[in-house]
Amino acid sequence: MQSFETFISKNIGVSQEEWAQLETTLQTKTYKKGEMISFKDDIWTSAMYINSGMIRSYIINDHGKDFTRQFYFNTKESRTANLFVIDLSSFTTQFPSNRSFEVLTDSEVVIFSRKNLYALYEKYKKWEFVGRKMAEFAYIDMDLFYHNLLTKTPSERYVYLQQNMSELLEDVPQYHIASYLGITPVSLSRIKKTLNETNDKAKRDS
Q1: Which residues, in sequence order, are CB contacts of 140 under 8 Å at separation 6+?
Q2: SS3 144
Q3: Which of 52, 62, 168, 198 has the fewest CB atoms found within 10 Å of its own CB?
Q4: Any idea what DSSP says for residue 127?
Q5: Closest by alpha carbon to 69, among 97, 105, 44, 101?
Q6: What's the confidence (pLDDT) of residue 121?
Q7: C-beta separation of 48 from 109 below 8 A
């Protein structure tokens, strides 16, 4: 787990004076489990760096069905992390978002406004790194999500979560996991049962 200050210092190499200047534009906020950060059709005028906790974004289709789009978290246990909580399309274009964002566990975020970030771009070229990293995370998220969805079976996608985002399986309701994988909760239970039986057999045979 790394704080926003650590992330900035490590990747940009700012002086204490530069950090102090940036810090005046930031807001740290805590959210309780179950709180909403934003709703569909909101326009993102700020972005967030997640210091701790877990947040999800989701889409609701025309029939009212909820589909988890992404999980955002920052933990030392994970082999991967999505550090920026943002709808980058809405943030960039200032069009309404098609996603809602919900807090899954008590969370702390650092909020920085689009206006202040763009002003920093103009003043100091090095701050463009922050925008670039947000774009990179968003692209990697989208690329990995669709790659796994198109090339892996539901069982393989679940194993990927086990290997790379294990805390999701402990802290997130199973119906959110199922919707993220593109399957029903019943199918997820079946996959878990089959994997457990396979692992138990492998242990007995070893």
Answers
A1: none
A2: helix
A3: 62
A4: G
A5: 101
A6: 81
A7: yes
